[in-house]
Design a protein that fits this description.
Layout (H helix, E strand, L loop, with lengths): L3 E4 L3 H12 L7 E4 L3 H11 L2 E2 L2 H7 L2 E4 L6 H8 L8 E4 L6 H7 L6 E5 L9 E7 L5 H12 L2 E5 L5 H9 L1 H18 L4 H21 L4 H8 L5 H11 L2 H20 L6
Parallel strand pairs: 1-2, 1-4, 2-3, 4-5, 5-6, 7-8
Antiparallel strand pairs: 6-7
Helix pairs in contact: 7-12, 8-9
């Protein structure tokens, strides 16, 4: 069994480790790095996985999952460069960072796969999009698909689409949370207790998501099924359209895409 090291055990890194354990991985086949000793000790106690430093992880692991913040990538690459080569698989979970960055800094021929996951990984419902770099083979892609399938669903896409993926599904949960927050506030405005408003909206969101996932119907048809002539829903939809909610969402997702491009721009030439 290959050894997997997660470099950066933040929320996403921890969620991946937890998912791999639930999928049957032995703790002995996993490693992680974490800058804060207290958190590292807590994760080791909770999951039985050893913490280590980046150079040691690079020596021991076959698969290196880079899950640090994009702005923290340079020191990690500095530590990996003398140790990582074609025999290792590098999986980047860093928003905006192209595979070309890793390929230019690591030994020639090092396989790299870029991934955009999202925070529902914490409940094993992630949507992850993966894109192979120049040296990644079909076998490498299958390895990453298997890895991420333990925490949700996986799509393989060209890297040219990764900035759009980052804006849509990477940031997407935050948009849903934002809308749910606003709807709970609306329930309070209408006189409902916060706990009641929260239960009503959260379960409605869960049910609506399940219908979207399990139904073959287009979202427009599902919405129309709730929208009776001259009823309450159409009056609410009219107000959403009047205030430009659809246009605001389009602009928000486009702005997130632009920020993803901006994060990667300094690294486009390596």
């Amino acid at each position: 069994m290959s050894t997997i090291a997660v470099l950066g055990a933040g929320k996403i890194g921890e969620a991946l480790l937890s998912g791999l354990l639930h999928a049957g991985r032995a703790p002995e086949s996993l490693l992680f790095t974490e800058r804060h000793p207290e958190r590292a000790a807590d994760l080791t106690e909770r999951y039985g996985i050893a913490s280590t430093e980046v150079p040691e992880a690079a020596k021991r692991a076959d698969v290196l999952v880079v899950a640090v913040k994009p702005q923290d990538i340079e020191p990690v690459l500095d530590q990996l460069a003398p140790l990582v080569g074609p025999g290792s698989l590098v999986v980047s979970l860093c928003a905006g960072l192209p595979t070309a960055l890793y390929e230019s800094r690591l030994a020639e021929g090092t396989p790299v796969v870029r991934v955009m996951p999202n925070t529902p990984m914490l409940v094993n419902e992630a949507m992850s999009a993966i894109s192979p770099g120049r040296h990644a083979t079909a076998e490498h892609v299958r390895t990453v698909e298997e890895l991420l399938s333990s925490v949700g669903k996986v799509l393989v896409l060209p890297e040219s689409q990764q900035d759009a993926v980052t804006a849509l599904s990477g940031s997407g949960p935050a948009y849903f949370f934002y809308l749910v927050e606003a709807m709970i506030d609306a329930g309070i405005l209408l006189g409902l207790p916060r706990a009641v408003a929260e239960q009503l909206i959260v379960q409605s969101a869960v049910g609506a998501a399940k219908m979207l996932n399990e139904s073959a119907e287009h979202p427009v048809l599902l919405r129309e099924a709730v929208t009776s002539p001259a009823g309450t829903t159409i009056n609410g939809i009219r107000e959403l359209e009047k205030h430009g909610v659809r246009a605001a969402l389009l602009d928000a997702i486009e702005a997130a895409r632009d920020r993803s491009v901006e994060l990667g721009r300094p690294h486009q030439q390596g």
